[in-house]
Amino acid sequence: MEDQGITVEELAQALANQFDAARYEITEDSFREILFIRIEGLSKFDSAEIEKRANPLLDEIESDYEEIILVDL
């Protein structure tokens, strides 16, 4: 991801900002190539709102992960 100009940490911070979250955690499953980003308060949003807020960021990055999954912290 860093080759595309954004680190995992920067992506997680940007996504947390989209949901006005003060806290987030990152977990990587390198075996299955999945990135989990846990965002404080994410459960307050329905899936349509999560997609609306997250997809613009996720669509503009190129990732080494098969999946990036957002979950509530």
Please give the structural blueprint.
Blueprint: H1 8-18, E1 24-29, E2 34-39, H2 47-59, E3 67-72
Parallel strand pairs: 2-3
Antiparallel strand pairs: 1-2
Task: Give structural notes.
- The chain is an alpha+beta fold.
- It has a single domain, classed as Alpha-Beta Plaits.
- It is built from two helices and three strands, in the order H-E-E-H-E.
- It has a three-stranded mixed beta sheet with strand order 1-2-3, with helices on one face.
- A hairpin with a 4-residue loop joins strand 1 and strand 2.
- Helix 1 packs antiparallel against helix 2.
- The protein starts with 7 loop residues before the first helix and ends with a strand.
- The model has no long low-confidence stretch (mean pLDDT 92).
Summarize the structure.
The protein has 73 residues and is of the alpha+beta class.
Q: Mean pLDDT, rounded to whole units? A: 92
Overall geometric form: globular
Oligomer: single chain
Number of strand segments: 3
CATH architecture term: 2-Layer Sandwich
The helix/strand series, from N terminus to C terminus, equals HEEHE
Distance linking N and C termini: 23 Å
| CATH T-level fold name | Alpha-Beta Plaits
Major sheet: arrangement of strands = 1-2-3
CATH class: Alpha Beta
- Amount of helix: 25-40%
- The class by helix and strand makeup works out as alpha+beta
Largest sheet: 3 strands, mixed
Low-confidence stretches: none
Number of helices: 2
Percentage beta strand: 15-25%
How many domains? 1
Tell me the radius of gyration.
Answer: 12 Å
